[in-house]
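Operator note (shift B, R.M.): manual run for NAD(P)-binding protein requested after the automated queue skipped it. Running by hand, logging everything below so the morning shift can see what happened. Input copied straight from the record, untouched. If output looks odd, do not overwrite the archive copy; leave it for review.
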Amino acid sequence: MPAILVFGATGKQGGATIRRLVEADAPVEILAVTRNAESEGAKKLAAESPKIKLVQGDLNEPRGVFEAAKKVTSTPIEGVFSVQVAMGPGASPESEEVQGKALIDVALENNVKHFVYTSVDRGGERSLQNPTSIPHFLSKHHIEEYLLEKSQNGAKMEYTILRPTAFFDNAKPGFMGNAFNAMWKWIGDKKLQCIATEDIGWFGAQALLNPEDPLYKNAAISLAGDELNYEEAATIFKEKMGYEMPTSYWFVAQGLFLASKEFSTMFTWFKETEAYKADIEALRKIHPGLQDFSAYLDRSPYEKN
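Run finished. Output pasted below as returned.
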């Protein structure tokens, strides 16, 4: 029974990938990497399946993570799910790039067969040629390039690059969600592609379980489940939830624009370029359960009136 090492296990993308691996009931051991194996979130995750084994570790020390993983499993680590954080406490695009590249090096040292990296869409098939000027897009672009170089385009270690678009979760009620919605409204009639993190997990699990499938072997896939402008999203939200989609005052969003190069550059890119270009129709043929915004709200934990 091979082992799969999943980073960000208690986060959105890593957690979704683990849930999908468990759902598939595949003959694999799931090594869930968490910074604190004693946390409630980690314990709750481990209780979901006997196949899940917690590995305490830090992305800043990937060699230590592999050493810790080998103490809880006697089977080869054949797959890795790699995700880093570029924003938040202690995180930056610079630290993300350092962590992402280091993990690729250590995976190669440990003879990992298949490496799944979650990046970001930068224009569909043009993504590799389109780094953009958005700091946390550019860092992911650099990690992609490093993966191709170090893996010798899949000759030394096979890979799948997942390129999600905006997360539906970004629009959830709360300060940052409300500000995101205000900035989305600023885009105007321009449509924005979005994806449910559970569906990122579905594709991540499929890539890890079917590494020789041409869809995933040394391939990159842009991911989205819907494409809609703010007004369309707000209409669906009100129909499903029974109240207006929460949106902050424009001056709050404008303040974030002024304070953060990330937000101002990203939303300007959304507004003034072709932006995300995932092929949603093709994705739905691969994954018929792919969620649009309406389906996402049906399953969301948001409070309904």
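Quick read of the result: The chain has twelve helices and ten strands. The chain has a mean pLDDT of 94.
Leaving this for review. - R.M.
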